[in-house]
Amino acid sequence: MRIVFATNNAHKLDEIRSILGSSVEVLSLNDIGCHADIPETGHTLEENALQKARYVYDHYHMNCFADDTGLEVEALGGEPGVYSARYAGEGHDSEANMQKLLSKLANNNNRHARFRTVIALIMQDKADDVEFFEGIVNGQIAREKHGTEGFGYDPIFVPDGYDKSFAELGMDIKNHISHRARATQKLVQRLLK
Fold first, then answer.
1. What is the pTM of this model?
2. Cα 75 to Cα 168: distance, rounded to the nearest angstrom
3. Which of 2, 22, 34, 132 has the fewest Cβ atoms surrounding its Cβ within 10 A?
């Protein structure tokens, strides 16, 4: 099976391809010649994921899925949430995003947080029947960065049951326990039916 993952984020693409293995051929936007800057104007992860998947399906008529992920911090009322990638501005600057988050939490002892990924799937045989898959991993926000692997907020997110950040655990472990892994496992079960 071939399916388009509506992203050009190399980190996300590698992560998804690693999780899916050889069971499904995953194409990127670049692979299908899509160079558009697909808007993400939704107010929820579900809306953004659907917006990206719908764009690809409407323009390329291929099986496709898109995801959106947010880091939801309890003490900040769920921030940065849907704005995680551009928390510190439109530049998608991971370093600035982390610094803003750590600064806003400062001396707050409530470090509870969760990563949540939502995947929207559109298949050619059921184009009007969008399916959603959600994955959540709970954890804590560290007081400072640790580790060099991964991307985004990985250096400051410590998943429950571990004493290391995603950036310290490495991609093999992260790909088994992450929010994206959990949502993707549900997607895989659906695709392999």
1. 0.89
2. 24
3. 22
CA–CA separation, 87 and 72 (whole Å) = 12
Q: What is the pLDDT along the chain (193 residues), one digit of tens a residue?
A: 899 999 988 878 887 888 777 878 999 999 999 999 898 899 999 999 999 999 999 999 999 999 999 999 999 999 999 999 999 988 779 999 999 999 999 989 999 999 999 999 999 888 678 999 999 999 999 999 999 988 899 999 999 999 999 999 988 898 889 998 899 889 988 887 7
To which residue do tokens 């950036």 refer?
Answer: 167
Contact indicator for 10, 29 with CB cutoff of 8 Å: no
Contact between 72 and 116 under an 8 Å Cβ cutoff? The reply is yes
Q: Are 150 and 101 in contact (CB under 8 A)?
A: no
Give the residue numbers annotated as catalytic, written as ranges.
Answer: 68
Q: At which residue do the structure tokens 């370093």 appear?
A: 95
- Of 161, 172, 174, which is closest to residue 117 (Cα–Cα)? 174
Report whether 130 contacts 122 (CB < 8 A): yes
Residue 161: C-alpha distances to residues 24, 157, 180 (Å): 31, 12, 17
* Residue 58 in tokens: 């409407």
